[in-house]
Amino acid sequence: MIATALSAHLFLEKKLISEHLQEIYKEFNIRHRCYFRSDITYYNESEPDPEKMKAAKAEGEKQRDKIDTFYLGIAMARREGLITVPQAKEILTEAMSEADFSNLKDVLFVGDATFIEFEDMFVEVRRSGTDAKLRGYANGADSEKCRKYLEIMVNYSGEGTPRYREFVSDEFRASVYKKQEKIYKRYLYKGL
User: Fold this and answer.
1) Residues of the chain whose pLDDT is less than 50?
2) Which domains does the chain carry?
3) Cα separations in angstroms, 47 against 52, 55, 56
4) How would you classify residue 158: left for phi > 0, otherwise alpha for psi between -120 and 50, otherwise beta?
5) Those residues with Cβ within 8 angstroms of residue 163's Cβ, 6 or more apart along the chain or in another chain
6) Is 30 left (phi over 0), alpha (psi -120 to 50) or beta?
7) With contact defined as beta carbons under 8 Å apart, do 160 and 91 qualify?
8) Contact 78, 108 (CB under 8 A)
9) In the prediction, which pLDDT does 190 show?
10) What does pTM read for this prediction?
11) Helix 50-79 crosses helix 176-190 at what angle (to 10 degrees)?
């Protein structure tokens, strides 16, 4: 009903929905107008041999978790005050030199994902809780930059660089899912 009402209103106004959307962006000062999503599956879901698929899925889950814990390690270290934003910039720059992290604002754990916040956009990386998949989202004003950063970040190998290991120990990185669960349960049962 709402879509029909909007369509009728726009028809009477002789306005395209894209024009209406631009008016909304302007009226409410919406800067982050571009949104992209990336889903990476780490195994062949069409594999006919169930044993091969099971083994490939298990390997895929390891790769998914390696990448996810790389980002979560930074976010949890930030949360616990073990690293600063400038140090997070150094870590990310060393790992992904093809991206510019100079306007990085923060790296945050947001309940089920790592939120990498820039002054003009964000990238969010999260693992699927049920499959060997990694999901990424980017939102900002510059579509080319959003696409580029999203692809770089979701396709990072998850390897801990020397600078990463200097601030995020292997033991700390191995504990991030327990930390994540503890934070989530605290929120769930006690609220904000």
Assistant:
1) none
2) 1-30 (no CATH), 32-190 (3.30.310.50)
3) 7, 11, 9
4) left
5) 87, 90, 91, 94
6) beta
7) no
8) yes
9) 83
10) 0.86
11) 70
